[in-house]
């Protein structure tokens, strides 16, 4: 998020806020019309040729609105998967179709293999936006251990129920399904895809945490107790200050991860994901508490943010899993 693009990101954020203010459920056509789906699609294929820094802005605003969309699986991850593949007669029409809205794809990041005979086998849980997708883009390894993306549409997709009703996830299973040679695309940088997914979720958590802080501050200014606004009480001030500190640290870590080089990306994402998604649950929980009795009602809407923050915390790696990765990296560096 370089300073040169600050104005662009501010404009993008303002437009996103305006679109999302019309309703928390945003359909695929609206995402396409807004130009968000094709942000990272090359301009020669109908996209904007932008970077993940711009996508991160949209992810943050979707979290701020607790919006129900298919953006994570259908755009952020699907385009990310295809951008690891070289130009081809298969890849390019897929990217163009995603950009113009005629194709809704979903990326499947799990444990899949393609045999030398062209049989796809594997399983993945909690795949975002897989149900109803026109194409499934399966990250897999081939018989030689190489990275490939398999374009499929006949896998077994089973919707998974969630407490977080703003998300749609599914299990995806392939039990020796035959795939054509043309559907197997050789890819690179596949390890970065999970980092990309984790960082997108962290951006979402930052947005929802900031929304909860803003809502709590507004409430503390208007809710009175003992003849004065509750925001004037020291305990409430300290609680809001703690929420602000958590959000500020999270934003700094996300900014670092978005701007990281490939060599430092895994560690930067692990720090951003583990801290931000854990902090977001704490911030929303504190918002619930500071809203008093109304915070526990359906009317306040805080429960929507709490359930989303809780699911984000585990999606694409729990804080404990990411911290374990950081610890292993530290032990490895010390051993050298």
From TrEMBL:
GO molecular function terms listed in the Swiss-Prot or TrEMBL record:
oxidoreductase activity
- Which ranges carry the Acyl-CoA dehydrogenase/oxidase N-terminal domain? 19-101
Q: Which UniProt keywords apply?
A: FAD, Flavoprotein, Oxidoreductase
Q: Name the top EC class.
A: oxidoreductase
What cofactors does the UniProt entry give for this protein? FAD
Does the record bear Mitochondrion in its keywords? no
Protein family per UniProt: Belongs to the acyl-CoA dehydrogenase family.
**InterPro entries documented for this protein:** Acyl-CoA_Oxase/DH_mid-dom_sf, AcylCo_DH-like_C, AcylCo_DH/oxidase_C, AcylCoA_DH/ox_N, AcylCoA_DH/ox_N_sf, AcylCoA_DH/oxidase_NM_dom_sf
- Quick check: keyword tRNA-binding in the entry? no
The protein in question is named Acyl-CoA dehydrogenase family protein
Q: Which residues form the Acyl-CoA dehydrogenase/oxidase C-terminal domain?
A: 195-329
- EC number, as in UniProt: 1.-.-.-
Q: Give the Pfam families listed for this entry.
A: Acyl-CoA_dh_1, Acyl-CoA_dh_N
